[in-house]
Amino acid sequence: MKKTHLMTCTGAAALILFAPNVFAQSSVTLYGIVDTSVRYLTNADSANNNQISMGEGVETPSRWGLKGSEDLGGGLSAIFKLENQFQLWSGKLDNTNNTLFQRNAYVGLSSNQYGAVTVGRQQTPFFDMMGNIYDPMTVGDYWQDNWVYNPVGPFLFTNSSVKYNGHFGGLNVEGMYGFGGVPGSTGENSMYGLTASYAVGPLSADVGFQQNDVSGKKFNIVNVSAVYAFTSDVKFLAGWLHSQDNTGLADLDMQQAGAPVLPRVSPNRIDDSFYVGSTWQVTSPLALTLAGYYDHARNAATLDGALGVGINYSATVLAEYSLSKRTEVYGTVDFTRGTGAFLADYPGRNNQTGVAVGLRNIF
């Protein structure tokens, strides 16, 4: 018994001595963003009343998350991410289906040489590229500066998906497949997406395709985007988005809250959207962003129950001032106007002007 006790103590001591080396190879990080704004908006309802309200930030919804990695040796690591989104002004989860980790919930393996493979609920390759690099507003949060993305909005994240992300010199390749999970049909409710971007000198360009199946009906989007850095402080961004929707969801998802009820939805809506923008780091704390969006819709649902064309356009100016490395204040002004089928997307008159100020802290 004494010998066994001695061996147990010796083993425990060895484990304690060895533990710092084990834990040094792993890391878990708590991170997040808290962001909210006060916004004035014209023509906010069917009576064309103006509105002052507190709500989400202009670019970054509030979130918190956990991410971690474990070094497995040989340049291979195990990785995971759990990321939540919430309403700072109300404290509620920012979704209607009570999803705790609506932004990301995945685990995977990452290789320094071959890239990363992850599985779970994840951002699509399209959202990765547009939100992180190629859209001047990083896919903004106000309807007036993100409406171009509303048709693809329900498909920016995918459940039950496997994703690959690889970097090879200036080339970045991402691919994703989402399992539909429907017995007897591997394609129903599935998705797949691919992007390829290449950076050379001051120019970076991206092409991508994504297809989502909804109960056997398809939504497709193609994008071509580019960023050119004139200097380290001044960048120009431009792109084209082409979407085709057979699900009928695009007509509904394009609408603002309070917009009129549509008599019918289109079985084959087609949108061609263009955007241009510029970011300028004026001084160390001050950054300016200019963005303009234009969309031409065909076969879109109209208020009289027919299908027709429509044009919508918007312009946004955003000024951000850093108080520290983690905290900034910002102000933004935007204008948007629609005609034709886009009249169905406004609660009142077919134009709106918004002015907002906000505060963001990153931790």
TrEMBL record:
Subcellular location: Cell outer membrane
Source organism: Paraburkholderia phenazinium
Keyword list, A-Z: Cell outer membrane, Ion transport, Membrane, Porin, Signal, Transmembrane, Transmembrane beta strand, Transport
Protein name: Outer membrane protein (Porin)
Presence of the UniProt keyword Signal in the record: yes
Signal sequence coordinates: 1-24
Keyword Protein biosynthesis: no
GO BP annotations listed: monoatomic ion transport
Summary of subunit composition and partner proteins: Homotrimer.
Matches recorded under InterPro entries: Gram-neg_bact_OMP, Gram_neg_porin_domain, Porin_dom_sf
PANTHER family: MAJOR OUTER MEMBRANE PROTEIN P.IA, PROTEIN YDDL-RELATED
One Pfam entry name: Porin_4
MF annotations from Gene Ontology: porin activity
GO CC, one annotated term: cell outer membrane
All residue ranges annotated as the Porin domain in the record: 12-340
Highest taxon, organism lineage: Bacteria
Membrane topology annotation: Multi-pass membrane protein
CDD domains per record: gram_neg_porins
